[in-house]
What we know:
This protein has helices spanning 8-17, 64-71, 75-84, 91-107, 119-123, 139-142, 149-172, 176-181, 192-205, 269-276, 302-308, 329-335, 368-376, 381-407, 423-452, 455-467; strands at residues 21-22, 25-29, 36-40, 54-56, 207-209, 213-215, 224-225, 233-237, 243-247, 258-261, 288-292, 314-320, 323-327, 342-348, 354-360, 363-365.
Amino acid sequence: MRREYLSNIDLNKWADLNDVQRNGVSIHSAEDGKGKRIVMSSRPDPLQQEKPLVTVPQHLILSLETVWVYAKSDRQLEEVLNAVGDFARTARGAILIFLLLQLSHNASARPDKVAVSTPWSQYVMFVPPEDSLPTFWTEGERALAAGTSLQAALDSKLRSLEREFVHLRDSTSSIGWCQRRWWNVGAEGLYFDDWKGVDSMYRSRALDLPGTGHAMVPYIDMANHASGDDTVALYDTDVDGNAVLVLREGKTLQVDGEVTITYGDDKGACEMLFSYGFIEVSMDSAREMFLDLEIPDDDPLKLAKKTVAKSSPGFKLFESGGSIDWDGDFVWLVCVNEEDGLRFRLLQTVDGERELKMFWNDKEISRESNLRDLLKDEQLWDVFQLRALATLQNRVEQQLLALEKVTAIKSSMHEFQKGGHPYSHMMELRELEEKLMLQAYEDFEHKTNALLASKVVQDYLASANKEKGAPAEDDFT
Length: 477
């Protein structure tokens, strides 16, 4: 779909035209010339110093609720929202569809434009292209992610986006104007890259706005990221429901100083690169990473476990008090089996359907998080913890080996400009995640050794080896 872009001067004019109140700030080009930034362009009037730097009227905030308000006066928007069903009942789904119609409105050279014109029709023309995000990388660039946690996240995201795009096409192909404007090849035609574009726009700009939830806030979303003490401003909601950008307590800005916000100080390196297309220069740790996990093929309950599992199939490694800890309900499901007390039963529901239920001994497990609590009350809790650690160490070792293999082919990456994007970001992510995983492996080894000294574990191993007719050993597998 054809896109046009407007200048920063026009963006400041757009803000004034749409009652966005600016207190000494304006939009300038970013230092690299590719993006935008909010800059203190003049000293605020002394009488205005206590006022927010930016105030965005409530009706301009793009949320699930406001999209459906727009739909009341836009028949084409309402048609598409209703056609895609439950997807449009989520903030992300509704906002993506709304943005898509705004882009379609701008792309059309016909007098009978798609969708009703809104302030957002022009605003999307100020939003820089998000082609630096990994979902827009070429196949060769995506190969750089091999061995990192970004690889699985990126593959999963692209599959999800493709499913959404197919659902959108199948749901709207019977709508006359959609068939003519979107699904016919041409400048107005809708392509997968357009869907990736609105997803990237939302993913990199959406804010968790107090009192509203996930939403897009024009003008404020042009603020760049800085973490820790470098964060200059905060976004919030005032008593009238407007979005405001205010200086942090104790912060001051000189003329030409940049107004920055935090995108999340606790976000890991992978999430920053995935959602925003960069890793902060000051970041010296991956902070956290997610590793997927498979149920072994020789597990007799594998199919039943996969059927009832609701949590993400994997676990998160994260820094905690100078060491590496982990979290993941799925791990406990992998580590126990029928001989331990895990049961599955096919029960009939009130409407006559049959549903697979999970039990620990005779207690029904409604959520996987409950399984860990039940295991903690068991005499063999130390044994279950040891199994979990063995599972984690094995998976971390696999990931380190995968990272090592790809690192060995660095010499074949000469086609990428070293020091440019995405090569430099991927090399940085590799180093940060390798450091985190090496520390995790070492920390888990210490915890494993401590558990092996447990009398519960020693008795369990002795009993298991006795049943096999072998002498007792200290090893745990």
